[in-house]
Amino acid sequence: MSNQNFSTVLGIFLLPLVTVTLALAGGDAAADFEFDVDAFEKKPLQWGGYIEGKFEHFFYNKDGALYVLNVGNTDRSTLDRATGTLQIDGSYSAGRSSFNWLLKGAASQDQEEYDDWADIFEAYLRLRPTDTLTVEAGKQSYKWGTGYAWNPVGFLNRRKDPNDPNEDLEGFITLESTWIHSFGSVVESMAATVSVLPVWEDINDDFGRENNINLAARLYFLINNTDIDLIYFTGDSRSTRYGIDFASNLATNFAIHGEFSWIPHATRAVLLETGELLVEKTSSTSYLLGMRYLSEQNVTTIVEYYHNGSGYSEEEMRRYYQLVDEAQGAGEETAATMLLEKALTVSRSGYGAAQTGEDYGYARITWKEPFDIVYFTPGITGIVSLDDHSWTLTPELLYTGFTNWELRLRCSLLSGNAFSEFGEKATESKIELRVRYFF
Amino acid sequence: MKNILFFLMSGWLLILLPAQAMAVDGDELLKQVDANLQPQSYEMYRKLINIEPDGRKKEFVFYTAKKGKDKMVALFLSPASEKGRVSLRLGDNMWLYIPNVGKPIRITSLQSVVGGVFNNSDILRLDFHVEYDVKGVTDQGETWLLDLKAKTRSVAYDRLKMTVDKKTVQPLDIECIASSGMLIKTLHYSDIKDFGDGIVRPAKLMTDSPLHKGYRSVMIFAKMKKREFDDEVFTLDFTPRVNELR
User: Fold this and answer.
1) In order of start, what are the domains of chain B with their CATH numbers?
2) Strands B183-196 and A133-140
3) Distance from CA of residue B145 to its chain's centroid?
4) What pLDDT, on the 0 to 100 scale, is given for residue B15?
5) Quick one: pLDDT at residue A181?
6) Distance (Å, whole) CA A411 – CA A57
7) Quick one: which of A80, A223, A239, B132 has the most CB atoms within 10 Å?
8) Which tops the pLDDT comparison, B102 or B91?
9) How far apart, in whole angstroms, are the C-alpha atoms of residue B113 and residue A76?
């Protein structure tokens, strides 16, 4: 570990904590009830963002397949990591056009290594010739779909972390146009969006097969107090797919939502019993159904069921975990290395991603301001694999009482039998403290 | 006998007719209150201050646009942690858009995106006569007391008791009551100000609640101006662009 790097990251992490202490000591100024509205006059250049310090303490699951694949040989049973993150977003407006950006960079240090990265998450030009028509060109993030933890219809979405679904994700470079129209009748309003997504060398090359131009379209309706989207994707970078989603309030405190997608010719890599990795084409249907309920005590409950049509069955996942087990148990070094490399190949083909099974349940319960503790929200998130009954549980405490500060303390617990999804993860639990300052 | 009956009936008519002419039309009065509080379509800036029992404050600033009887949108300008968020109301539908999170999520009128005593229905309040029926008007000398009942169950408060100043025909206080009869909060209007363009109305709205003892919230209104908007401004797909209206 480099002392200089560790000091830098620790400094980034401690700076917000020190400033919180000073803010606590200072308190908010009693400005009476003045409102200098001219200070909020719109300026052509607007920017902001946040700086974050995060400390994580991991407890390794040394029997886990993903520990063997991703961590490897280490004597330690725990790992401490400090991460500093800076995110800057902004826009420059001129008339009916604007240029928008979102930049993010992070540096992390733990007992094994130092790592840093920086990326342009978004950078796009927006033209709004009328209030009904918008054209956008550049890199922008997509989060289509109504689901909280998963989005089967998110054909242009990056994969999100169900434990942190609201985090910003990197975009893709597209040319997009949206037309909006209000009817004010049974169909209250509609919007039509068309996105062109090229995939070439160094342009969206992680989206799919290169040297292709892809097309995605979304048609939105607000009908009888229900949001409905029809979504379509075609192109040779990924196979053609169709989707529909909806969201509606059944009562003032009860909303339901759902998504359905169909991929007629989905491809996936499957590890056969013979050990061969076969790429098969199959029709895939995925769907999600969820609800959101707000109680009188201000407790919000979100529950979702997700079926992943391209997911691996319990038996298919077992074969993968057994391969890793075999690699770990191989006596001869050469055989062990070969098996391990094979397992890594299988992992990268799709098995190693998060939630690659078939059926999942998700629940998130948050209690806003219990016992009149203003700006305090405790919560708990649970994800269960309905195939192998393994699960993860994450209780958390969130406090936003200091203006522009967000403090979050979390603990993640994973449990499952051998050869189960959450039982074979690299860690069995984690404690995380995250401090964010917005500016 | 017939003459006695005739005189008795005439006497009653002489008493009742003037009384009938003096009785206030509650629905018209409520519409007048709404018209005096805000134009049909307008934009404005508001500052919302949450005050905790120990005196600490948290402030929010937002830009609001409204059109007609049931279209409203509010864009958060401050603090930095909330900047860019948009709350949209279309009739009974409400959504919250968080930048970079993607599709707006449906929210309810009783929730509060800012915490404190004000909730979403206070921030995205439609005209009173759109959501409430007048059940009774009581003459209190210099004020009227309007007894209002929610038209549907989707309205945040089941009943309102609104004290209206006779001189200005604007509310002074409003008690917000749940269907159980429980007092949820009380709104206090003050600081009459001329915003120009014929808009003269309270510039300050304070609220307190027996459910949050010691906590208060204050809303300050500024730069209220009549302005027309396209219907498309009040749609989900426009929420990322609300800032361009300013």
Assistant:
1) 25-245 (2.50.20.10)
2) unpaired
3) 16
4) 52
5) 94
6) 9
7) B132
8) B91
9) 44
Backbone angles phi, psi at B65, to 5 degrees: -125, 140
Write down the pTM of the prediction.
0.88
The number of residues making up chain A comes to: 439
Eight-class DSSP state of B242: G
Residue A75 neighbours by CB under 8 Å, 6+ apart: none
Q: What is the pLDDT of residues A65-82, one digit of tens each?
A: 888 888 877 788 999 999
Q: Which of A280, A304, A274 is nearest to A292 (CA)?
A: A304
Instruction: Compute the distance between CA of residue B134 and CA of residue B28 in angstroms, rounded to an integer.
Output: 9
A370-383 as b/e: b if 16+ CB within 10 A:
eeeebbbbbbebbb
Rounded CA gap, B162 and B135, in Å? 11
CA distance B40 to chain A (A): 17
Do A13 and A53 contact (CB within 8 A), yes or no?
A: yes
Angstrom distance (rounded) from CA A323 to CA A329: 10
Is the pLDDT at A219 greater than 70? The verdict is yes
* Selection from A89, A97, A227, A115 nearest residue A168 by Cα: A89
Tokens of A187: 């169909």
Mean pLDDT of A131-141: 95
Does the model's ipTM exceed the 0.90 cut?
Answer: no
Q: Which of B57, B109, B237 sits opposite A191 (nearest CB)?
A: B237
Q: Which two tokens stand for residue A211?
A: 């040297």
What is the chain B residue with the closest CA to A224? B93
| Span between the terminal Cα atoms of chain B, in Å | 77
Q: Read out DSSP for A167-207?
A: S----EEEEEEEEEEE--SSEEEEEEEEEEEEEBTTBSTTT
Question: In the prediction, which pLDDT does B7 show?
Answer: 60
Contacts of A374 in chain B (CB under 8 A): 50, 52, 115-116, 215
Q: What percent of chain B has pLDDT over 70?
A: 87
Residue type, A261: S
A374/B50 Cβ within 8 A: yes
Q: How many CB pairs below 8 A link A and B?
A: 156
- Whether the CB-CB separation of A274 and A293 falls below 8 Å is answered with no
Contact A182 B93 (CB under 8 A): no
Whether residue A27 and residue B56 make contact (CB cut-off 8 A), yes or no, is: yes
Closest CA of chain B from A218, distance in Å: 11
In chain A, which residue's Cα lies nearest the Cα of B206? Answer: A33
- pLDDT at residue A1, as a whole number: 41
